[in-house]
Write a structure and sequence with these properties.
This protein has about 160 residues and is α/β, with parallel strands linked by helices. The protein has three helices and eight strands. The strands form two sheets. A four-stranded mixed β-sheet has the order 1-4-2-3. The relative contact order is 0.14.
């Protein structure tokens, strides 16, 4: 599990400790962002209001506060760990990461896709279409979260055929 924001990482650490103690789980947690580049740091924006618990995004708003964190390359980490399941929610950063097909050892993928702005909405819809039309994959579930009657988030779960 990767978490770049320190507050959220601290909460994750406590939860993982409980899981390890109670269920003998093997969860590695890394205080870093996943990116599609080789950058060792990335600046993103955290919610500057009190209505959210340190929610981060690549999208800058007038209330957001810039935060620079350590980052590691998603594809390098994927190859290092070689998971069979990937769950991704990287708050709008997914389009800089999802640039190619997943390796064969990845059997299932669950994603939260963000489409709040016009450009990211197009990226969201294009990515969904690319999975629908990819002969390697089968969509298990696709749910849209509408805001003002327009899809702004998509929850996509697909598996390798």
């Amino acid at each position: 599990a990767y978490e770049p924001e320190q507050f959220n990482f601290d909460v994750l650490s406590k939860n993982v400790s409980i899981l390890k103690e109670k269920f003998n789980t093997q969860i590695e947690i890394i205080n870093s962002a996943l990116v599609g580049s080789t950058a060792s740091n990335i600046t993103f924006n955290i919610n500057g209001t009190k209505s959210s618990a340190c929610s981060g995004s690549v999208i800058k708003t007038r209330r957001s506060i810039e935060l620079t964190v350590k980052s590691v390359n998603f594809w390098d980490e994927l190859e290092r760990i070689r998971p069979s399941i990937v769950k991704m929610d990287i708050e709008g950063g997914e389009y800089g990461v999802l640039t190619k097909d997943f390796p064969e050892y990845v059997k299932e993928v669950a994603l939260e896709l963000h489409g709040w702005r016009i450009d990211s909405n197009k990226q969201m819809m294009d990515y969904i279409e690319s999975i629908k039309n990819n002969p390697l994959y089968e969509i298990i579930n696709l749910d849209f979260i509408n805001v003002f009657k327009k899809p702004k988030l998509a929850l996509l779960h697909f598996k390798r055929k």
